Structures are given as C-alpha cells and as structure tokens.
Amino acid sequence: MCGIAGSVSFEPSASAINPMIDALVHRGPDDWGVWHDEYCALGHRRLAIIDLSAAGRNPLTNHSGNLWITFNGEIYNFQALRDELETLGYPFHTRTDTEVIVNAYQQWGVDCLRRLRGMFAFAIWDRQRRRLFVARDRVGKKPLFYGRFGKRFVFASELQGLLADASLPREVNPAALDAYLSWGYVPAPHTAFKNIFKLPPAHYLTLDGRDDDFDMRVTRYWALDYTPKTVISEAEAVEQLRDKLTEAVRLRLIADVPLGAFLSGGIDSSIVVGLMAQLSSQPVKTFSIGFEEAAYNETEHARRIARLWNTEHHEFIVKADALAILPKLVRHYGEPYADSSAIPTYYLSQMTRQAVTVALNGDGGDESFAGYERYRGNRIAERANRVPGFAWSARALHQVLPDSLNPKNRLRQAKRFLAVATKPMAERYGHWMEFWREDEKPQLYATDFRARLNGSRPMDWLASLFDGVSELEAIDAAMAVDVQSYLPFDLLVKVDITSMANSLEARSPFLDHEVMEFAAALPVELKLKGHTAKYLLKRAFKDLLPSENVERRKMGFGVPVGEWFHSSLRDVLADSLFSEQAHKRDYFQPHEVRKLATEHWERKADHSFKLWNLLMLELWHQEFID
User: Fold this and answer.
1) pTM of the model
2) Which neighbouring-strand residues pair with 43?
3) Annotated catalytic residue: which of 2, 34, 47, 569?
C-alpha cells in the first residue's frame, strides 16, 4: 500500500516528482524512490507490507530494464502468478507482488489485468515503445488522478500529489460542484478541478509517443455481470459462498506486518472477524468506534462479537470536540466530500494503526448481498406500480403521514418512500441518495452560478447508469448502480483516504472480484428473501453470528452532525457559511443559506445533510482555492 506519482513529457524532470511524492508521505512513510529517463519520471512512497527489505523499493524494473513500474495496492494471488511466470522463464529478484505485475505485463500485456486478484493502481513505462500503461482495480479500491497540460501528462494517487506541482492550474469545475451538491461526491472521471480527472475503476489508460506528442486512450476492461443467473440450490449456494469468502479472507491475511480488523458489530464485519479467528493461530485484534449519542452507538454489538471470538478488542468514542479534525480531512480528500462518517473512520484508522499496519473490514457486503433498505424499497415500488390505483393511494397517504425530525423514524421513512414511489426507477433512487434535489437548486443557486453550469444535470448521469441495467430485476439493478457509483466514489474513497492518512492498509474480502461475481450471478431471492436482507449471507455464516446481531435493525455508520450543529459545530457552521468570503463566491443565495441554518437551529426542520454538504464545500474552497 503506497502512494505513486509520475510525469511524461519531452522534458521530464525527476526533481519535479519530489514535491508530489512528499505530499503523499502519509501513504508510504517507510521508504521512497524516484526514477526517470528522457521522457518519463516515476515516483513512489512505500508502506512496506510484503518483503520489508530494500529490495522491495519502487520504482522497480523487470530483468531486462525496459519496463519500469510504480505500484500502489496488494495483489493477493501474486504467489500463484509468480510460480506460473517462473515456469515461463522469468527470473525474480524480490518477494514482492510489484515484480509479479511488471513480469505479468511483459508476458500478457493488457490481459495481465484479468489475472490480478486484488486492489491496485499502477503505472508501467515501456522505454522501447515509449508507452505509459496506467491501470486501476476493478472496484476502485485504489485511487488514481491524472491531468494533461499541453504536452505534459501527470498522475498521482491523490489530488494532494498533483496539486503539489505549483505549475498546475486550480480552476474550479462548476459542473463537478453541481454533482457534488447532489451526491456528496464528484463522480469519475471528473474532479472538482478543470483538466484534472480520475481514472475510473476497471479502466486502464495508455499514453503512446507520437512524434513530438502523445496519444491518450482510456479503456474499460471489466464489468460485473448479473446475467445469466446461476442454477443452484440453496444448500449448494451456502457451501460455495462459505468457501469463496473464506478463501478471500485467507488471502488477505498474507502480510509481513501485524494485522487486525475493523469491527462494527454488523453482519459483514462480524463474519470477517469470525473467519479471521478460525484461520488465525493468535487472537484477532479488533477495533471499534462509537458515539456518546446512544442512537448512533454500536459498540455493545461489536463487544458481543469480540467476546465470542476472544479478540483483543479496542474502542474509541467520538465526541463533538473531535471535529477539530475537519481541516485535515478536507486536505486529504482534495475535493469536496460530504460523507460525515469520514470523521469516525479517520479516528478508527488512527486507533487501529497504533497496534497494526493492516486491517480487514466488511465493506462491500451490502452491495453484493442486498443489505440496504433502499433495495427492498426499489422492489416494492416496482411491484406496487403495477397495482391499479396505487399512484392515487401513495399521494393521499403521503399527505396525511406526519413529518418527523428523527431520521430513523419509520413514519418519516415511509413518507420519504411514498414521495417518489411512483416515479421512474432512476429518479426514485436519486431522490433517496441526493443531498440537494434538482427542484431545490434553483432557489439555492445564485444567478451567476446557474449560468456557469451550462445545462449540467447530475440526474442524467444516474439515469444513464440505470439505462445500462434496465433489463435487470429491481434489486439487482439498484445494486449494480451502487457498484458503479456509491461504492467506488463514496464508501471506498472514504476508507482509502482515512486509512492511508494514518498509514494503515485496509483490506476488503467482500470486494474480492470472485466473491462479487459469484454474488451477482445468484438468484435475487437468495439475497433478499421476503423481508430478510442478506438472506444467503446470514444462512451461510449463522454459526459466526449471535442472533442479537442478526436480528437487530441495520444502523449504518451514521454520525450525529445534526446535534453537533446545535452545539460545538454551530460557530464553525456560521463562521464558514455566512462569511463575506463565502458570499463572494457567488454560488448561493445568502438568504437561502441563512434560512436553512436558522430552521435547523430552531428545530423547525432537520437540514443536517444539506448543511454538512455546504460546510464541506466551503472548507474545501478555503483550503484549495483561496
């Protein structure tokens, strides 16, 4: 797990890479390296996990010296690939997975990506062909940003790395900010900066030298397939899932440094910890986060799992004064990011890093095994819309249901469902995921900002994703869209940034692509059976899960920012959103922003998510633009 950076041009400079990798020192505090020739310069910051010796230093070359690689990630099947490559005559000088990748590329070219099982972002420079090959893993665990400025191409693991180059422009992308205000993140391939992009998950980029310039292409190499469905009995599915997930956990226990696990007490992390305990000869180290507010605190459920497996358990309680971490989070994310659970995830990573270098987690279980309530809501709405008179009944019931300021209130959730139950799937789903709806933005946006958007409509992006899965059943369709949106651009960004900010490697067995492919091909009824979410997962691992953990209502990783806005965060909110500096940006109508905060402070409405969204945008501006 590391940080990488590089530059390709006709006048490369190794010294220009130094500030870029210095900005990524948190991703790799153990070692660093820079290599360059007349066209390409590569840089690396190393967090040593496999082969801790100096032989594992990047950038690294193949035996002939014509290919050079800088690599971030872990290839979990690298030992099997190495054995295969050795039978083909390839010599190895290290025990690293990096050397396996560069030899695999020499042997199979672009097709090497289909053989890699793991998380990765890497760049390989082919000196003979004058070609740069950049690739990112299937799901998007490891980030990669790039930009092309004239005849110069640059890339880095984080925006911080690119922006360390003072020559790069920092021009705001208004359409990206519009998307952020909708979703709380900026979807790939865009970023909040014009002319800087994200390489999307499951894509590779090639840069080929042509006379005095370079030809750039971006290509997709993998997509999760939900059809055809596997013909399988429930008993066979239980056995195969058990085998596949156990193997995914076993592969992620390979390391030359101490390991542990994040433990929330939810289904997914509890299964991972149980499998780790069964596969390990020593007690598993587990780490949990909690809140003083009881409605958001899951620590007792985590303790139950810790007691079951006799783990070395550690806890941290996030208090409102922990928000002093906000400026650091803004700096690490590099662009606006509004998932408030980044706060506890940062502190969880910080606590975990004090004891281990690698932590396994349960990320991805919901998206493969139908864990979110919105999946069931999507199916109910699709079926209900086939019933005559449902549209009229839904509108009538929506009008009589009472409002509630409690986000976990069942009546509030029912009212929210009924508000969009009759709309097309993409519009309905977008409504459930949006911070700001499209019909709310005209009242919020200043006239000048609306004009700068040039017809931007974030819902068009979401609609295009649903168009691509229009033949799927409602639950599979929603999960497929999450795998292309919420998972890579929200959840995985959150964990990568907060863990790597603390020099901690996070591994996710549920995101093993073989586990995901198996789950995608399962009949939907094995994922959501009646009202039972994650049916097959619970059945396959019932011996690892206490009934209290299985039967409780899913909490998610919520954060009580609504209450914090009434207390310690109130002044931060006012000073940021009502400042003259914020008004000069001319993004929003000042009276609308003040009205929003006032209604929240007077408890007339719960505007927690909207206010957090606006606050993180303003703090980003202060850090990166001002």
Assistant:
1) 0.94
2) 5, 34
3) 2
